[in-house]
């Protein structure tokens, strides 16, 4: 459904030389910097897949989604979505996909959402019966029927995002690009949006590429993740496999009130990954098979107030992946 080959986008940003003479100089010779927001990115996504697109801020996620939507052009490389070249911006392609940007509103602020939906119906030329059926279904799934006549700017963030999703889905796109759709939402709305996306993907086999800051979104929705860092792809595969890289280890968190630094220093040299907080909390990451022996040793060496053993969270595994690439 989606085929991306060596997709690259370079942005030029002009440097401003400070002061009057700098400005004058800039009129003749502008100095610029080039940033590769996306570098040689290749991947394919099959119909119906729900893929997580991960990476720290500035990694190039939004840039890639914008290229796939035909909003910006690649510097080099190609993308094909359902056989279409997004750069051609064909009408048939516009009907096939939708892009939802969590940080940007696509609905009209000063109109109730229902008015925006009517306008979209006209823009896409959706037959009346189909429009009504789709709208009813989406409104019920997202439980926003009583908010349809409220001015968009008066809706809560969560309600607004639900309306954005309805707007994006009215024309029944086959491919969805979701850029941080849950950003800033309260936990309840986040969960509602997540649940809706999962059901929608299963029911209609819509292909979805999702970026999110919230690992819970990715964990609950995506079996496969593509990770990018500084514009380049560094991982593409099962989320499980990424998790098991951390799953082989456990985190031992020990609370040692008033302990000297002696213990932790020997831990550091022996276990490597030790983290120490000011409040007397120490964290060690050890291989799973050593958890018992290391905990026993900790307990026998000092006045331990508390000790807990946890899995290494996915966030940490991914952070390590980024650190290894830096
Ligand atoms: N219009 C633009 N002009 C210049 N630089 C840009 C522009 N858009 C994005 N960038 C740069 O490209 C990089 C990737 O940005 P972006 O795709 O928004 O990252 P992400 O969505 O992963 O946070 C960043 O370094 C960003 O500053
Ligand atoms: Mg972004």
Plain-language structure description:
The model has no long low-confidence stretch (mean pLDDT 87). The longest helix has 18 residues, at 187-204. The protein folds into 2 domains: 2-243, Rossmann fold (3-Layer(aba) Sandwich), CATH 3.40.50.300; 248-325, Alpha-Beta Plaits (2-Layer Sandwich). The protein is globular, with a radius of gyration of 25 Å. Helix 9 crosses helix 12. A hairpin with a 4-residue loop joins strand 11 (274-276) and strand 12. Strands 5-6-7-3-8-9 form a 6-stranded mixed beta sheet, sandwiched between helices. It has helices at residues 20-28, 61-68, 91-94, 113-124, 128-141, 157-169, 187-204, 215-221, 239-247, 262-271, 291-301, 314-325, and strands at 2-14, 32-45, 50-54, 76-81, 97-101, 175-179, 207-211, 224-229, 232-238, 249-255, 274-276, 281-287, 306-311. Helix content is 39%, strand content 27%. It has 326 residues and is an alpha/beta fold. It is built from 12 helices and 13 strands. Adenosine-5'-diphosphate binds next to strand 1, strand 2 and helix 2.
């Amino acid at each position: 459904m989606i085929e991306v080959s060596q997709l690259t986008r370079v942005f030029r940003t002009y440097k401003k030389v400070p002061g009057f003479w700098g400005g004058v100089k800039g009129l003749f010779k502008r100095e610029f910097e080039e940033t590769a927001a996306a570098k040689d990115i290749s991947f394919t996504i099959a119909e119906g897949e729900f893929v997580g697109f991960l990476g720290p801020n500035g990694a190039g996620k939004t840039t890639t989604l914008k290229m796939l939507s035909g909003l910006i052009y690649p510097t080099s490389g190609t993308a094909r979505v359902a056989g279409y070249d997004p750069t051609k911006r064909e009408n048939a392609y516009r009907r096939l996909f939708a892009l939802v940007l969590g940080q940007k509103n696509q609905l009209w602020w000063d109109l109730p959402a229902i008015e925006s939906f009517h306008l979209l119906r006209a823009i896409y030329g959706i037959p009346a019966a189909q429009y009504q059926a789709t709208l009813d279904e989406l409104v019920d799934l997202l439980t926003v029927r009583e908010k349809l006549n409220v001015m968009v700017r008066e809706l809560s963030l969560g309600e607004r995002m639900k309306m954005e999703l309805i707007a994006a889905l009215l024309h029944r796109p086959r491919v969805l690009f979701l850029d941080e759709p849950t950003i800033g939402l309260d936990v309840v709305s986040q969960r509602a949006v997540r649940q809706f996306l999962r059901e929608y993907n299963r029911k209609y086999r819509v292909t979805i590429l999702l970026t999110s800051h919230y690992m819970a979104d990715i964990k609950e929705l995506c079996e496969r993740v593509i990770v990018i860092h500084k514009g380049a792809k560094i991982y593409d595969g099962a989320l499980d496999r990424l998790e098991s890289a951390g799953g082989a280890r456990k985190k031992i968190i020990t609370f040692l009130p008033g302990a000297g630094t002696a213990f932790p220093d020997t831990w550091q040299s022996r276990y490597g990954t030790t983290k120490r907080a000011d409040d007397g909390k120490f964290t060690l990451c050890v291989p799973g098979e050593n958890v018992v022996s290391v905990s026993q040793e900790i307990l026998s060496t000092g006045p331990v107030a508390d000790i807990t053993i946890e899995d290494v969270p996915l966030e940490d595994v991914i952070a390590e992946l980024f650190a290894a690439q830096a």
